[in-house]
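user: Please supply your own:

assistant:
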Amino acid sequence: MKKPAQQSLEQTFRFLDDKKEVEFLRHDTPTPWMNYLSNGTFHTMMSQAGGGVAFYKSPQIWRITRYRFFHLPTDRSGPYIYLQDRANGEYWCPTNEPAHTRPTSWKSAHGMGYTRFEAERDGLAAKTVYFVGPFENSLIWNLTLTNNSGSAKSLNVYAYAEFGMMEFMRELQWQCYNKHQVSVTYHDKEALVYKYGVENQPKPDETPLVYFASDAPLYAYDGDRDEFIGTYRSEANPEAIEEEGCTNSTLLGGDPCGALQFQVTLQPGETRTLNIFLGCAMTEEEIAAALDRSREKDFVSKSFAALTANWADYLGKLECQLPDAEASRMINIWNPYQAERNFQFSRNISFYATGTFRGVGYRDTAQDILSVIPFDQERAKDKIKLLLGQQYQDGHVNHYFFPTEGWEPVTSIHSDDHLWTALSVWDLAAETGDASFIQETVPFYDGGEDTIYNHLKRAITFTASKLGPNGFPLMLRSDWNDQLFRVCRKGKGESIWTAMQLGAVLLKMQDLAVLAGHSEDADGYRKMYAEQRELVNTLGWDGKWFRRAVMDDGRFLGSDVHDEAKIWLNAQTWATLSGMAEESKGIQAMDSVREMLDTELGIKKLHPSITTFPDPADPLTNYNKGTGENGAVFCHANTWAIIAECMLGRGDLAYKYYRQLIPQVAMEKAGLNRYKAEPYVYASNLFGPESDKFGLANVSWLSGTAAWMYVAATQYIMGIKPGLDGLRIDPCIPSDWEGFTAKRRFRGCVYDIKVINKTGSCKGVKEIRVDGRLIAGQVLPVYPAGTSVQVEVVL
């Protein structure tokens, strides 16, 4: 049977940049396209069709609603509203899903911290805005109904959410017993209260009650899912809606839900607004107080205004106008928005990740901090201290950990984890100009405490104590490429890439040593850097590119002598990022990247893909060719290629690599139904050309791609990079750009920057003027907080 024609991008979505929104013109996107609604404590992940999950603090132990990962029909369940015409019984949903009857006109949009739906059927228009405001721990459903017909409409309005059993894994394993211990009761404040009181839960004293209520008079309700949905039915055709409405059921054991029924009559032209609150509090008295506040006349409007103002202030810290509209949109709106959500949720829960086993990844979070530092230094400081609290006295760290859940951490020791933190500490010092932070004291995971600087110093000492036979750092459990655990099972494998990462960190540690008053340490860091640099350029060099690792048996990984996995992207990029590559070798290595790894949809992680290497009985990876870490386009690693090319001054190549991974651009190239993931946030990887699904995007939203892409775009392409001595301006742009403008808040001053490129240059600052006065060099002085300066940069 012939497949129907694919829908075009223009018929599916469009960007509304003035509103900082992406608008969806059809609900059935190739995968659910998500948004995160959050105030830092109460969270909801919601799709363009209304599916999603709400949770309090942790999706692992306080998951409020159910979301069925990997099930069909996809994208169920969600916080749904049903509108029923009482005259004929017909009902539909403003979200389009899940009712069988559809609205005749429909659109939705994701904005900064909210998701909006607008729909109409038979003259009834419905606008619903879902958001989590800053004042209460609740998901607000702001529903506005307008009767555009010529006759009165008498409606049943239903709000529905299926409650989960808080602990997702316990629910999967023990729901037959747990369901006897949950309850949904009616509160005299016209609210349903869901209690998860299961024995042996991890934190019963911190487990909240869930409430479901409205500011409109309640007509009826259900707390028992079976009473509302019925048997052999689903959210598409609830029995209560098709029969006589809610039954006022409560629940003392079973499958819980919240269903609220309201009756509304609208005269022609009349508009009515009602608000629904799905929230949590610790006691019924606190619920009553929260509902009193939420039902105040201006509560919802004030909450939404505060949400909007918070994001306007956050995103206003760096704004740009580039010759490329898609790039401007990503840098101004969607990239920092995604990076902030990454910083908040680490790699915990998304459409792709069920939120069951990942807490806070050390290496992931240390990198996420980099993109938040320009926006929120206090949150960055707190997260750095949280990470360093997972460090042992010998310098290594826990691989990932569970600060909210209190579970035991994953303790596998990797060669790279502990080194990442120094990069974020240096960036924070550069952003603030305040070195006092590195003298603050933080405890070690295994007891005792020390200054932040000494934590970082111990990380260097740990790596120095774990060098292999060739002098490179031992791989230990693996490095950034997790699949490489197979090359070091006997404990002899070495990571050439970690030597480069160490080099980048040692350059920062020299500065931090001076700031901490330990300048004597800097000489040792310089010596170690020189030793590793020599090894990288000798044993690490394969002739046309840098080798990746040394395997347990002494053979080099990433060599032209092998048929598979000849060249690895990370070794080529970090050779330049670390400053270790001799200039000619750095250029040759990146030329090899262009010749052997680049594709029309991004740069592959390695080439050729692995099937039998190094042993057909025990290949290096179980990934299929062209997927995951085996020949896919690993977007996170692509960011380092962009930075490397900028450091080499090759702006045209750097921008080619940047632009081809802008999600909308990649989707246009691959096709909507091949790319599948969101066109407004970065994915972790795309299937590579050796796959039959070349261009399929995977693991969107929560990916290190977001942080590093923002760093690459703003600090290297635009070249606006904080330094310890001021704000450095050193753009590396495409030669056909005539310039760009940017506004950057730095240490309280607003720098209004205009870059002029009349010579077709990629890199090279000819002069800089501040308020018309020529300054020496490329570092802008620090001006008083509260002032603004005009900066003109000529290439």
